[in-house]
Amino acid sequence: MSFLFDAQTHTLLQALGRALLHSLWQGAGVALLLAAALSLLRGRSPNVRYALACSALALMLLLPAVTAWKLGGATQEVEADEMSTSIGVAAAPPAITETRTRVAGESIAADAGRSFIPRLQSSEERMRFWLPWLTLVWLAGVSILSARMLGGLIYTRRLRRRSVRPVEVCWQEKAKDISRRLLVGRPVRILESALVRVPTAIGWLRPIILLPASAFTGLTTRQLETILAHELAHIRRHDYLFNLLQAVAETLLFYHPAAWWVSRRVRVERELVCDDLAVAATGDALLYARALTQMERLRKAAPRLALSADGGQLRARILRLVETQPRRRSVSTFAVGLFFAAALFTTAACTRAVLSQRQNENARPSQPTTAEAAASGDTKGPSNIPGQALPPGVASLIADDSTEGEDAEVRRVAVAALGSHAGTVVVMNPRTGRVYAVVNQDWALRRGWTPASTMKLVTSLAGVGEKVFDPSEKVRVPTKAERLDLTNALALSDNDYFKSLAARVGAERIITYAGRVGFGETTGINYDGEIPGRLPTPQTITSAARLGFGEGVEVTPVQLAVFVSAVANGGTLLVPKVPRTPDEAASFAAQPRRRLDISPSALEQIIPGMLAAVERGTASGIKDPTLKVAGKTGTLVNKEKGTGLGVFASYAPADDPRLTVVVLTSGEGESGSVAAQIAGSIYSALLRRM
What we know:
Largest sheet: 6 strands, mixed
CATH topology of the domain at 370-686: Beta-lactamase
Shape: elongated
Distance between the termini: 42 Å
Structural class: alpha+beta
Strand order of the largest sheet: 1-13-14-15-9-10
Oligomer: single chain
Strand content: 5-15%
């Protein structure tokens, strides 16, 4: 769908579509509970049944909204550092764009220009493709019914002004007398209308009652008084406003038969409540029943948003009024309360279970099949993690990787964690520089990528190292309720904080520190074809603030791994190496490239922010509390192409570093949060072994 919608719109449509599907069983469950409750409360006060029916309709509207928020949040709360731009995300290589690429579990046809509907293999892919269209169909239905409701409001407004005239003074006095008995606190105008066929109440703040001319000739004075009492009961209860809200709910839930049944029950019970109030005000149920019977002969459809006395199931209402001994069922209050408590608990539990399952599916990185793992160099058999196929283009790149000297188990785990995401993984030792595995070496070594918000680490080092700011200073930012220091700003990857910081540090200092941590030069890794990336000159930078997010800079994932390893080991840039023979592995020793020209105290200032990013910030998708990971996420969104770049550079354990893991993913729906989840899977599988 990326060829029709940008990434954010597609995500929103997906969440709404899933919420609509969930609302089918949610609404049916609420309707069944209401039906059972109404059966238990048959013969009791209609006030209680009316309140239950209104609550059920509100719940049917609330549950899809909460579901959409939860499902949307699982994808959209990816991270606060998301940056929208039309540049900076490296284009996918030809091997990817010329094949059908599955990214984050989605199937996108590369030849979408030739075919409107891509070829979809799994039910999940089909659902992901059709859900946005389902949402658009729902929006179209809502638009049509909203126009219909607006037309009803316009017609109702017209009724107030056209073909009306005041009734005789005696009827105004009778209305005031009934209003006092019903405790109606607002003045109510009584008008005779040539456009209505039954007495009708309109309005909330300035209510009026419209009486047809036939009511004065077809009903006796006493009968018309009872009908007036019914309409005044509607006004006392603010039913016009609730009826309008009910029409909104019907519009939003138009696709659900259960919603229409519940809405019908609301109208039926509302009329019964007003019937009881009318009888209480006039004191004669039989007279009121005769008035309803006579009015049936005058009946003609009233406007939808008006409230007329012929609403509800008229025959049932009349029989209820004339029945001398209403049937009551003996049901204890305790039993009713117990039933509703159990129903509420069951509904909440089911909803939470479904939403939790969906969130877990979104959070769990997809895994490769055994065949793909074998193609990437795994000879140890299938992973214990359920598999999904890698994107074909990425699989072919991984199959071309040079795996001589790599740790086969580390490679297997990294490929399994990468799953169906198009990306690359670098795993190395931050103390010695030994490389355990580089998955998709073409992306890790031979292509430059925008570092996105991982560049905020460099900006922070430049600011602290040059004493431009106090990292403990609390700074107020527009998008946050509380002030942020450097640790919290890194944890949340707050854009406003780092825009201000980058502007204060300046482009020249940021570029200088980027060069000190190894950006813009090769690492010396013993794989073929490594590129140095790119560092701009200060003269070519138009905005230091955007440079602070990595704009104009290109790095490789291996460079990020070496940089993060230097943070972990106290400031030494290592030459990453793969021991090609068993003898090299047995005698492997660290090969320092140079010490960072950055004070150790400056390095120590950014580590708490990297820890906080995993504990409570943008990388909190790493769910294992036993892992003490320090890392930084980066997300870049290309709105024109509907794709994203996700980066996570990290090391663990933070107090005894043994592994550095850098993950980069590219494609639809990718983000730093997704990359962090992939890294979390790698740490969970390897840290105990290491």
